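Re-running Transcriptional regulator, LysR family to confirm reproducibility after the cluster update. Everything else is unchanged from the original entry.
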Amino acid sequence: MQYLRRMLPSTNALFVFEAAVRCGSFTKAAAELNVTQPAVSRMLGRLESHLGVKLFERVPGGPQLTESGTILYRRLSHSFREIEGALREIEARRTGAETVTLSVSTAFTTHWLMPRMSELHRLFPTLDLRFQLLAGPLGGPVDEVDLGMRFVEGEDARHEAALIMPEIVLPICSPAYLEQRRQEGRDGQPFPNTIVNLSKAEPDWSRYFSSERPDGETGAGNSLIFSDYAIVVQAALLGQGIALGWLNVVSHWLRGGALVPAADEPIVTGRRCHLVHLKERPLRPVAAQLRDWIIEETRADVAAIDALYPQFGLARLCRLA
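Result of re-run:
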């Protein structure tokens, strides 16, 4: 430890270095650390001067790690995670609570997890559940969380992955909205669809719906566009239109009948939804149990929806995909 103290201008330099690499820029690291960007630059300059090597190449696209910087970051990030794990264990022993952090979408949290919170508390009475919420598409690193929901191929060199289900999407709406469209069709009135869309969605699902009138012409229809998929699903629940429902998010509402299918067949994208975590950050027993519970509940949802709508063959699709 004496050598370590001699080699560093201060231990704070390590926290600044780690934040700069993880955030990808000195400016973002400064915001996280609640200091100015010049202060971050000065601290990193002092660290480089003290070590006698360059840790970053300052290039137009942002700072890039040198070979020395890569060596330091690899060991430092692993050490920080080990220290964090020890502190969590101490806190759990002191409070009797076990903390698990999930990186999931706001939509999954709102529409899948929240309806199950009572059951979750019953099964995990000492669990302190925390969230890194993503309003847009699932993505980003899982370095700072226990588990992240991601659309990935499976395990890789850094991550372990547990399959939840293949990505299956289905046009959905409320029963009242579907009945209104049927009634307008019987009355011979136009029934252009209202499409509840997600901005920058892939795929653009508006093309999956036609706004046909009884004379065979296509109506213009209209749309509601939101940047948060949780609001898209909420609008569909409130009868505001048709949306595309990711099965891993809307399965609770389909199972209970608050949402119903608005098309004849599901769309299988070929992607697969997993719960992933860093291999160098092994799951604690409570996190593994929570992961397994999410997977079991999701598969129970699929089985129940498959029984309600056997024409879609959802259980078969989940086995084959």
